Amino acid sequence: MNKWKRSARIVDMTRQLIQHPHRLIPLSTFAERYDTAKSSISEDLTIIHEVMSTTGQGGLETLAGAAGGVRYIPGMDRKTAEEVMRSLCRELSNPDRILPGGFLYMSDLLGQPALLREIGQIWASVFAKEQVNAVVTVETKGIPLALAAAAHLGVPVAIVRQGNRVTEGSVVTVNTVSGSSRRIRTLSLSRRSLKEGSRVLIIDDFMKAGGTIRGMIDLLSEFQAEVVGAGVLVESAAQERLVENVVSLAKIKSIDEKQRTVDVQLGNLFEKGWEVG
């Protein structure tokens, strides 16, 4: 392409910004790529920002100065997020999902890329201002959720293992108590997977008493990490909670195995009046 038209520039810039969320891109990079004045690039970016803001898909943040540039901050407006989660709550309320012991089958939902992308975008909105360096989860069902959140935050994922694996190299290990069954289990994290002093977001698929998240917090303290937030896709009622301030997207109000009924509602996130970061 010899000469970029404005429409082509806008499409290409939007693609690059979305593919690299939270990465600061100098205006000179765009100016050189399109052989266009920085003033024209600034006008294009204003258009992109207005469209993103209007459609509730986040927006652009511009930093002035020689070391400045522009970066895309992913987001989702509250109305759209509620629509996504109400649809998921209806799906989870299907009695065919009831498993023995009062659990719900969710694995098929955690395998849907489009849904995961939307959930990750919600997490990115909630924790956009926390300057997250890494997302941490425990194997295995939390992994796709953590990857979705990390993709929108532009950070890596560190996976906590249950037990030790020789392929992880040197690890840090803690023992934790399951809040529901009171069983002792071992959680470990490779020393190479997380830098000391990182600002960490914990993401998991399900929480009852919060024993797993409590264990991850204890483990992360060995890395001098600061846990800036914790989120779960679904929470269930519990007599006691081992952790506080965990943000949930959905909440199981009741499961009746005999009557084959399930009541799943919006999580505490939508009770807190959250704002897009």
UniProtKB/TrEMBL annotation:
CDD domains: PRTases_typeI
Assembly notes: Homodimer.
Protein family membership: Belongs to the purine/pyrimidine phosphoribosyltransferase family. PurR subfamily.
Stretches of the chain forming a coiled coil according to its record: none
Pfam short name (any one): Pribosyltran
Gene Ontology terms, MF aspect: DNA binding
Species per Swiss-Prot/TrEMBL record: Polycladomyces abyssicola
Source species, domain of life: Bacteria
Domain Phosphoribosyltransferase: 108-256
Domain Bacterial purine repressor N-terminal residues, every copy: 5-74
One example of a Gene Ontology biological process annotation: negative regulation of DNA-templated transcription
Keyword vocabulary terms for this entry: DNA-binding, Transcription, Transcription regulation
Keyword Cell inner membrane: no
Protein's recorded name: Pur operon repressor
Transmembrane among keywords: no
